[in-house]
């Protein structure tokens, strides 16, 4: 169902306003600062992004200084510009693209455009001319991210310019601020040239729409101050208009709707171009698909009337026209129009606790600072080294930072309490293993192998029996629970590096000596036994002695052997001297 607002903006109510303090113009692919022909200051993009390759359009295809440079992205799922230090509010964001055959392949690419974790549009570049896309929305964070994402092999995303303009809070406010507006067209009827900054302090681009068949262009002789109500159309677009040739003829408006049904937000602007005589009347109605759509209106002179239609579903088959009323002596006219598609609901982004933890990691490790934009959204364009849940406000469930050339101590990222997997193997991380790693309630796998951690395993980790925990090849890491500084008895350490586990060597050596020693003792005892047996036998024959002496000698010999087992090598030598 359509919703309307009728705004009659009187000159007496007009007051001068200034745009919000946000006015950012980024010349992508350039490192220079310059001011263009519209007095817009431009900055290079080095402060807003770390990756990508700067390219230039061949001189033969040059159209402007800003459009002649571009930044191309040949790796990663998505690459994002991050513009920070804003206060939340309503903004206009515009992204521009000019292929210009920079790569001499005559193959303009197609890719996706995103903002703040939301899908925006599929960019279809062309070999000739540049295109731009514009979104108006209320920020949910204090920063803006604009990303391009590769969707087809060997079609590399690029961007030529990125602009952010602050809007006053009352502008474009007649719709739910949880939804963005995507520009379809913004036209200034009867204008001789494009209207933008400085004529429009918000730097909206108003494209001239010349009179078609059955229409004429007219100019206004009214004097306007800067409008301060409604959506603040610049006076420059109210000073021209198109009308029908005769009072009985209608104006069929070219709306530019897509072929599929979509919800739209439309602004129409009307202002009388001349002071009417007492016997003159300009009165007309807005029709949709040949039926009255809005009540009759008569535009004011020196002021403007704005009609806003929102949340109405249309398609390329939908028509709008301005039809004169029966009592009108003058034909209908129109000065300007804006048409927007209403996008899907804005996401809240990745859970703020996970964002906090990821920022800590990026602050600690320079190699991670190339990633920006929302970590998890839009799906499937997560950062390359994380996994995320499928929740409306996604959680980061895995960190895959193995072999990322990270060097330093681990920062505190304990706020990421939905983590199930942490893989940090094969880096140059050092210091003690942080105790907070054992506090993640859902952690199932922790890989710290091939680093330089020292100290002992935290008790919080040692108690997690269901954790798959890998710490091999950390040479100075204690894994036995004993102090790494203790001496005397050997300490169990993780394998790898220069410091190997010495306990197996010591045990092997001790066991070998023990076996050799007792083999020698055994041979010696057998020989002694044989000698004594012969001697006793001889004495028995001579003296008739009893066999009990033989038993006694053997018993004493066994006692000496048992004492040798208990007293060690010194007793062995002593017993040998006895014999």
Automatic annotation (TrEMBL):
SUPFAM superfamilies: L domain-like (SSF52058). It comes from the Eukaryota. It is a single-pass membrane protein. InterPro entries: Leu-rich_rpt, LRR_dom_sf, Malectin-like_Carb-bd_dom. Residues 26-341 form the Malectin-like domain. Residues 1-19 form the signal peptide. This is Leucine-rich repeat protein kinase family protein. The lineage of its organism: Eukaryota, Viridiplantae, Streptophyta, Embryophyta, Tracheophyta.
